[in-house]
Design goal:
The structure is a homodimer of 181-residue chains.
Chain A (H helix, E strand, L loop, with lengths): L3 H10 L6 H7 L12 H13 L3 E6 L7 E6 L1 H11 L11 H7 L6 H28 L9 H34 L1
Antiparallel strand pairs in A: 1-2
Helix pairs in contact in A: 2-3, 6-7
The structure holds a DNA duplex (30 and 30 nucleotides).
Chain lengths: 181, 181
DNA sequence: TCAGACTATGTCAGAAGTGACATAGCCTGG
DNA sequence: CCAGGCTATGTCACTTCTGACATAGTCTGA
């Protein structure tokens, strides 16, 4: 029915009412491990969701040329989201620039490739440390019926991803260092 | 200059001449760990690359309404690809349907969510076994100047990814099982 | 010999996503 | 008091990607 972005917006609104701006902020790196979108896309999608009756809004006075709109999920929106959650996800297309560069890395100067991966490793380690700090703020996993479970579970995914990625980068750096020696 | 898809195509052509059909086959799951695209996109991009002088083609007789076109990378294409490889990749937007579903999973029936993840786990274990078989075919990592290094290194990434993903799914299943008990 | 799979190239409408532009009040610190 | 950042919504042109449609020769096995 709705696009995946629509469900992402509903997933945010399921936690409470928000303006489009708030949703955009929630769906921006490094806050969001679950979906990313720009505000231009979000405002457009909110209009579609409102037209479909999945969200409703209330206009309140606020700064800016227009008044702000506070959105909330309607019962129909909740039904749609709940039904969607347990359906199997579509297989996602693999499109990772770093992996593609790796595939073509045999063409390039190994020292430059090594630097590229060393820098990526640094970034992953940094992000990993950040996620680990965040994880400590949870005192263990929340109950699966708690909204915070969603945050914790996605954070766990991010944590595992950064570890895997850092390890891979470390392996690449090692490969390219031994080639030089 | 070119789009990322353009570089993906060049990365394939760097290994030898190919038809658009061949490239599409190489960039289709589960063959490709490096980039995915449909043939409709690839034929269009090849035309752009040819216009830009990064690839050239030769028409040969083949089946179908049109003759087949065998593409190869030009020296300019090689230069462009080599220069691009060592440039830092753009940060990729996180858009993973399963992670999004996880974020909203607290709303749904835990048993249905458990089944979703059990099925995902099964798929990741299957793919992992497949990748492990493929890895055995390499007798250790090729030299970084060997085209096969690109294949091996991306396979290593896929291997790490599937392991991380499987572990996360296993954790999710455990969380949702204990909730039921 | 004939069905069906595979090789092969392309178009097109539409959806999804990007990046820039536009506009303007509110709040905080120097 | 004023600059600069934050809140806030929106449009628009453009690129990228998807999925369906179209077309037709070759090769293989039943």
């Amino acid at each position: 029915m709705t696009s995946t972005l629509g469900y992402a917006i509903l997933a945010v609104l399921a936690r409470g009412e928000r303006t489009g701006y708030d949703i955009a902020a929630a769906m921006r790196r490094p806050v969001s491990y679950f979906w990313t979108a720009r505000h231009s896309q979000i405002h457009a999608e909110l209009q579609k969701l409102a037209a479909g009756g999945l969200v409703a809004f209330e206009t309140r006075h606020g700064p800016g040329p227009q008044d702000k709109k506070v959105y909330r999920m309607t019962p129909e929106g909740g039904d749609a989201l709940r039904a969607w959650v347990t359906e199997p996800p579509r297989e996602r297309p693999e499109r990772d620039e770093l992996v593609l560069k790796t595939y073509a890395s045999w063409l390039a100067d190994p020292e430059l490739v090594r630097r590229l991966f060393a820098e990526q490793l640094r970034m992953h380690e940094e992000r990993l440390a950040e996620y680990e700090r965040e994880e400590e703020l949870f005192g263990g996993p929340p109950d699966p019926g708690d909204p915070r479970f969603g945050n914790y579970a996605t954070l766990r995914c991010g944590l595992g991803y950064e570890r895997h990625r850092a390890e891979w980068c470390r392996w690449m750096v090692a490969q390219l260092s031994s080639a030089r020696a």
